[in-house]
Amino acid sequence: MSERIIDLDGIVKVYHTGAIELEVLHGIALTVDRGEYVAIMGPSGSGKSTLMNIIGCLDRATHGRYRLEGTDVSQLDDNALAEIRLRKLGFVFQGFNLLGRANALDNVALPLFYAGVSPRERRARAMNVLATLGLADRARHKPAELSGGQQQRVAIGRALVNEPAVLLADEPTGNLDSATSEELLQLFARLHDEGHTIVMVSHDEQVAGHAKRIVRLKDGNVVSDMAAPARTQAAAASPARQG
Question: Above 90 in pLDDT, residue 210?
């Protein structure tokens, strides 16, 4: 049987600005099993980024329950949520969010520092991750000395180094050209094949087509949840054409 890793039930998110109350999510129900590769899609204002922030424990739902690996994170205090983010979640953002003065090795090792891992083990684990991403020879390079694709690979390495339960990617190819985006998406496909659970937010049909399941949001509601069409997956597996 599949192991449930994400379980959202009746998730409502309301923002308050003075006397104005804006409900962004309207009772979202969503589950993700271990090893799935899920894309969350929707137009601007659909609530997809808000939903991703709740899944990533960066924000709290106003109402509803969220279980992560069986733990009801809806009831946790801020310190416990920070620990969940450190131990169970890996984040990949559109803007890379690397430390400019730190080299690739130290950027990847950063979560291990906060986790209290010894310096020797931090370096060894971070170097191993960089090697698996084809960046061992760039370990001592700072972000400004790396291409955009290499910087995003470093960011992925940082997200993976703590062996998280879920890899969360928010528009991960947004700052990359089409050829580099394709290379990065092939990397995500490889990580999925290796057993990683991936939840990705994207507004791009071609990017989302690399996932195995697409959840579509509109006006704060799930309007579709189905396997990615076979023809879309086949196209996603093909190298991008140069025009």
Answer: yes
Print the domain residue range for 169. Answer: 4-236
Query: Rounded CA gap, 127 and 121, in Å?
Result: 10
The 3-state DSSP class for residue 217 equals strand
The CATH number of the domain holding residue 81 is 3.40.50.300
CB 93, CB 109: distance < 8 Å: no
Q: What are phi and psi of 150, to 5 degrees?
A: -70, -40
- Record the pTM: 0.90
Distance CA 200, CA 207 (A): 9
Beta carbons of 146 and 154 less than 8 angstroms apart: yes
pLDDT in tens, 36-85: 999 999 998 899 999 999 999 999 999 999 999 999 998 899 999 999 99
- Structure tokens belonging to residue 164: 């998280």
SS3 229: coil
Strand partners, 60: none
| Cα dihedral sign, 71-64-5-105 | negative
Q: Is residue 66 part of a domain?
A: yes
List the end-to-end C-alpha distance of the chain, in Å, as a whole number: 45
User: How far apart are the C-alpha atoms of 189 and 228, rounded to whole Å?
Assistant: 14
Number of Cβ within a 10 Å radius of residue 100: 8
Q: Mean pLDDT across the stretch 141-152?
A: 95
Q: What's the chain's length in residues?
A: 243
Q: Average of pLDDT values for 23-30?
A: 97
Tell me how many domains the chain contains: 1
